[in-house]
Amino acid sequence: MLNIGLIMEKIADIKAILPFLLKGAVVTIKVTSLAVLMGIALGTILGLARVSKSKWLKSISKAYIEFFRGTPLLIQLFILYFGLPNLGIKLSPYFAAVLGLGLNSGAYVGEIVRSGINSINKGQMEAARSLGMSYPQAMRYVVLPQAIKRVIPPLGNEFIALLKNSSLVSVISVKDLTRQSRLVNSRTYQTFLIYISAAVIYFCMTFVLTRLVNYVERRLSVSD
Amino acid sequence: MIRVEDLHKYFGDLEVLKGIDETVEQGEVIVVVGPSGSGKSTFLRCLNRLEEPTAGRIFIDGQQINSPEIDINQLRQETGMVFQHFNLFPHKTSLGNITLAPMKIKGIAEEEAKQIAYDLLDKVGLKDKADTYPSQLSGGQKQRIAIARALAMQPKVMLFDEPTSALDPEMVGEVLDVMEDLADEGMTMVVVTHEMGFAREAGDRVLFMDGGVIVESAPPEELFNNPQEKRTQEFLKKVY
């Protein structure tokens, strides 16, 4: 039996909670975007260090990646937000969240960049060097432009994972989508409705991100 | 033009080049033949230091190229290299492949670089492929573009590392034609190849390498028709 009255009531409930959730979603997007940018910058440096000839750069980069991949993101966030104050360093929740996600993502992006560079035939570097390009020039004009195409799909996966992992920052009192959901829930107890709504909003965001990655991938494949 | 003195190269404990002494005159075309594993590619790659010589000295145009003071990037601009597997840049068109190094290394303006590139495309007979990506070219066309790319830096010496070995038989000719033209123009060339026709046609001298040394060096007719060394005779009997 369809109960029109109940459905109308639920729609009214959703209308009431939606603004709170969307406010959280905006924070989620902001934190994730900044972390993505940080992850790309850091990951590129780590990836280049991993394939460089310098033993020092190699081992530092490797140690970094091992540490951040080998420990839980939640613990990393706890260290940054709750742990560092013991050493006299106090970060705002928002800053700690971006930093934690970015440092963590950098490790994964670093591995992706490394495998992307390694997937480019050695002959490409040799051809570029044989023309007289320096190592940085050969990287910049020949190897990286090709590697970028290869790393787009795994990077897309990484950033979708990052977006979802960003829900963890709710525990260091960042008012993201997950925390807003919990706050609204503690006031209204519309638990099912609230978390289903949150899931739908997360899904919309990852869906858009997936399309975006596919679009970039298509755009970059003109020469194949 | 090129002088090699007592060149040795080790890969780990394996001695691949066991003391090479050789001089290549300006405008000379040297063809290097020999069984696989004889060190001929390694020898060629030492000439632009894609392989780092373990010991010995290499001079190009009077400069010792394997001394710590030398600017290796400057040196490599003067020695063009053509690879067995072409190694064209797949993300660039033919034109982009040829103009990249002149523009980025020498800082030549785009228009001028394009002009140079069109002239070279004309020379290798591929003017109509200027805007084509390598994935749409045949092997022979790829190798001709690769030759044009190397020539765009206006090198004094051209090194060829088995330039026709990866090609289908019907495409070998078009690449060799371009190389013969280049030889006729007086380019100094060192060519590692199995193409005896090319050696006879364009070669001034043939080096037979085996076991990391140059066993015999003679003009092509002499070396092919009347080899002096036993190892050369055995190799030629097996191959031709």
What does this structure look like?
- The complex is a heterodimer of chains A (224) and B (240).
- With 224 residues, chain A is mostly helical.
- Helix content of chain A is 82%, strand content 0%.
- Chain A has helices at 4-51, 55-70, 73-83, 93-118, 122-130, 135-165, 177-188, 191-220.
- In chain A, α1 (4-51) packs antiparallel against α2 and α4 packs across α6.
- The radius of gyration of chain A is 22 Å and the shape is flat.
- The model of chain A has no long low-confidence stretch (mean pLDDT 93).
- With 240 residues, chain B is α/β, with parallel strands linked by helices.
- Chain B has helices spanning 40-46, 72-77, 94-105, 110-123, 139-151, 169-184, 196-202, 220-225, 230-239, and strands at 2-11, 14-24, 29-33, 55-60, 63-64, 79-82, 157-161, 188-192, 205-210, 213-218.
- The mean pLDDT of chain B is 93.
- Classes of the chains: A mainly alpha (224), B alpha/beta (240).
- Chain A binds chain B through residues 121, 123-124, 126-134, 137, 141-142, 145-146, 149, 223-224, and chain B through 48, 50, 73-77, 79-81, 83, 85, 87-93, 100-101, 104-105, 133, 135, 146, 149-150, 153.
**Helix and strand run of chain B:** EEEHEEHEHHHEHEHEEHH
Cα-based radius of gyration of chain A, to the nearest Å: 22 Å
The ordered H/E elements of chain A are HHHHHHHH
Distance between the ends of chain A: 56 Å
